[in-house]
Amino acid sequence: MASRSALVNGWLMATVIATTTLVSAVAADRTGTAGNSAPQPSQLPKVMQIKLDHAQAVLQALALEDYAALERHATELGALTKTAAWGVLKTPEYRRHSEDFLRETDNLAAAARAGDLTGATLDYAAMTVRCVQCHRHVKGVRAAD
Ligand code: HEC
Question: Which of 41, 64, 74, 117 is the S-S candidate for 108 at Cβ 3.0 to 4.6 Å?
């Protein structure tokens, strides 16, 4: 029993580290490409920065097993997708990415309500994958302009 829980803990920690790296990569990617030829809009919606803050707060809440904070930040992340500023692109695919992302934040909030730390950690990882997928889509569309 003890070894099984040690295994789960080790796995959870590895997942958290992997997703932290991913989220940092999302942020670093932005700075890294700032000097490139692709023109960056000067007025990036503030909602994108708020999104990153909430995502980092979710990671903190996971690490501290703070279910109330977890649910709050997951819910606020989901709510952001419904703001006008979120709608950067009007393509059906962008809408689909937004819906996929919203589904993961809903799952995350539900796992937080259920006090399911392992489930919430998996949902966090799945949500982070959605961050990356949507950014890749946005870059692809921009590159085609
Ligand atoms: C449905 C699409 C979509 C999803 C999902 C998404 N983003 Fe974004 N993100 C964007 C768009 C669009 C931009 C702005 C790109 C641009 O205008 O050049 C952006 C920009 C950003 C930026 C740069 C902001 C700035 O100030 O330059 C960060 C950081 C970011 N997103 C973090 C995240 C994180 C973290 C997640 C997941 C929790 C996430 N995003 C999920 C679409 C998305």
Answer: 74
pLDDT in tens, 29-41: 444 443 333 334 5
Q: pTM value?
A: 0.78
- Residue 8 Cα to ligand 1 midpoint, Å, equals 31
The CATH number of the structural domain formed by 2-32+45-144 is: 1.20.120.10
- Sorted by where each begins, the domain ranges of the chain are 2-32+45-144
User: Probe ligand 1: pick from 135, 137, 141, 145, max atoms within 8 Å of CB?
Assistant: 135
CA 131 – ligand 1 centroid, Å: 7
